[in-house]
Amino acid sequence: MLAALPLIPLLAGLMALALPADGPRRWLLAAVGCLHLTLVGTTWVHPPAPAYGGLLELDPLGQLFLTLASLLFTAAAFYAVGYLRHEGAVHEKRDFQDGATFVNAPERVFSLCLCLFLSAMTVVCATRNLSVLWVGIEATTLSSAPLIYFHRHRRSLEATWKYLVICSVGIALALLGNILVSVAFYDPVAPAASMDLAELLPLAPGAAKPWLRAAFIFLLVGYGSKMGLAPMHNWLPDAHSQSPSLVSALLSGALLNCAFLGILRAVQILSPAGLGAFCGELLVLFGLISMVTAAVFIVGLGDYKRMLAYSSVEHMGILALGVGIGGGAAFGAMLHAVNHSLTKGALFLISGNILAVYHTRSCHDARGVSRALPITAALWTAGFLAICGSPPFGLFVSELAILRAMFAGGHGLAATIYVIALAVIFVGMATSVCRMVQGPLPPAVRHPGPERVLSVASPLALLAAALTLGLYVPQGLADVLARAAAAVSLGG
Amino acid sequence: MAAIQSLLVALVVVNLAYLAVTRLKTLTRITALQGVLLAATPLAIAGPHGHGLVLSLAVLAIKGIGFPWLVARTLSRLEVNPVVEPYFGFNMSLLAGVGGLLFSLWLESRLPFPPGLFPPLLFPAALTSIFSGLTLVVARRKALTQVIGYLAAENGIFLLGVPLAAQGSVWLELSVLLDVFVAVFVMGIALHHINKTFESIDVGRFCSLRD
């Protein structure tokens, strides 16, 4: 069962590459998403046995992030059916920003890379082996770079190059971190057979602490640059603003979580070694820096996709902060990861609808959305309220849980910075979103007619899920969240 | 033990040479030299048999011959200006490299190394390599020098992993080889696109995305 999970998207990707007809290929993506999601869903009922000699093994933490990745992919795949109908054709297009002509990448290659991307993320989530995890995260970089460069113009190339260079250096630093973990566990008499958590955790109390500390710093900076923690976040706004919206949704909703999982695995090793407090301090520090950075940049930002990207930097900061505080905040962070993925995925898909009609990413020029696209405008407003943590959406519950744990743990200063950053971001985003939704339709924009079902169904479903989680968390999900939070508890 | 010490000293010198070189062609040759030296380290540490020998041959083929050839081919195809254009000067870079070397030597004297794991000077040599590589990534204008810098940094990480290879797991080496392979492959493709689109591989022209 677990063995098949990464293989299904891989095979589907090859099929997509071979299929000559556009229509079936687009629906193939959606079918793969559904199949993958169904299989992942059955793991919630029947925990799967380890596969490939223990290289793949699903624990609550992995299960949570795997489900998110699968869900986001499925939503994006259905959205892609409509998106590719308009964007798939290979002919010269005019760049709306600088007027130069460009073509899109071949749709087959795009579909292949999407499937490979899902396969790589599945491996990342479904392993407890640090080596496999690392290879998987590297594979996500390689499979997603062509996705960002779908529109083959200068700006997307610049974004792709930045993404490749920054994330490759990050992944190299993470490798260094992994090697330092090996040094910490070095035992000439009885060497550890593999870098599997099951192997390492019992040995953790006896590992060399200075080396573990150094390893964690490199893993945090390495995977953190992929996760988009400030100040290593520079690639994120560029890549998210230049890639197709469904790719941005996958990057933000699924990929950043996978990188976070890399850091969480390191936390899992350091806690039993008695270094939980050390991890916590660093995570809180990077979390707060990310939130403040996002708050500073989001105010007055004229580009709505970059605005969403900076919001991702903020929420990744919240995740790091929550795990760093520990206790109830760790549970809050896990719930927050779920809520953020659902909401941010929906918002990026909606931003794609707006971009398709207005041909601009400027908040100042894309006005009167409620007149041109009434459903999209309603979802855009709801999504904005959700992402800023307004009740009754799920992010309110998780952000409040983290805040309460901060006060309970005596982190007064951090809590103050947290609340101020959230408030500033709310105001900053509100200005842009309200301006976009209201006002008259710009004369240059033609009324697009009724909205297509495929362009609003996915974001609607994701937002509905985020709303539900604000009102009610199912018992099964709460159990997995609690077990995931317990796995990353910082210990004494 | 003498062999590995000589190798490591040579590696340190190569690392500093990365920062002082002004011609792209020479830079490519230095990459090849570093690859060959790296290929010799598993032999010098573990002796010429079994796993160490295979690893060494693979490294020679990939880092010593494959990449430098790929980079050289890219260089000749792109018809770029053969001079390495720095953001900050060669003397400054070299000074920074020496600073990095001194720092890593100091670090070696302070860190509690597991007894018998690292031969003396391996840790500073690896750290200087990472440092020089990252300096090339941030301090040079051409996309190609960024790729070479990335390779140099990877080589440093690889060097640090070599003594651990005897611990039984081959994952580390496999992943390093895989990583460098795809990095060059993908970055090579990206380089061609950059050259085609911007008619240059000067990343200084990347200035349209900002807040």
Describe this structure in words.
- The complex is a heterodimer of chains A (492) and B (211).
- Chain A is an all-alpha fold.
- Chain A has 18 helices and two strands.
- Chain A has helices spanning 4-18, 22-45, 60-87, 107-125, 130-148, 154-184, 197-200, 209-227, 235-242, 245-298, 304-325, 328-358, 369-372, 374-387, 394-408, 412-437, 453-471, 475-487; strands at 93-94, 101-102.
- Chain A has a two-stranded antiparallel ribbon with strand order 1-2.
- In chain A, a hairpin with a 6-residue loop joins strand 1 (93-94) and strand 2.
- Chain A is globular, with a radius of gyration of 22 Å.
- Chain A starts with a helix and ends in a 5-residue tail after the last helix.
- The model of chain A has no long low-confidence stretch (mean pLDDT 93).
- With 211 residues, chain B is mostly helical.
- Chain B has one domain.
- The radius of gyration of chain B is 17 Å and the shape is globular.
- The model of chain B has no long low-confidence stretch (mean pLDDT 83).
- The chains are: A mainly alpha (492), B mainly alpha (211).
- Chain A binds chain B through residues 98, 131-132, 134-135, 138, 142, 145, 149, 152-155, 157-162, 164-165, 168-169, 171-172, 175-176, 178-179, 182-183, 186, 188, 191-195, 208, 210, 237-238, 241-242, 297, 301, 306, and chain B through 111-112, 114, 116-117, 130, 134, 137, 143, 146, 150, 153-154, 157, 160-161, 164, 167-169, 171-172, 175-176, 178-179, 182-183, 186-187, 190, 193-194, 197-198, 203, 206, 208-209, 211.
- Chain B: InterPro entries: HyfE-like.
- Chain B: Keywords: Cell membrane, Membrane, Transmembrane, Transmembrane helix.
- Chain B: The chain crosses the membrane at residues 53-75, 87-106, 118-138, 147-165, 171-191.
- Chain B: It is found in: Cell membrane.
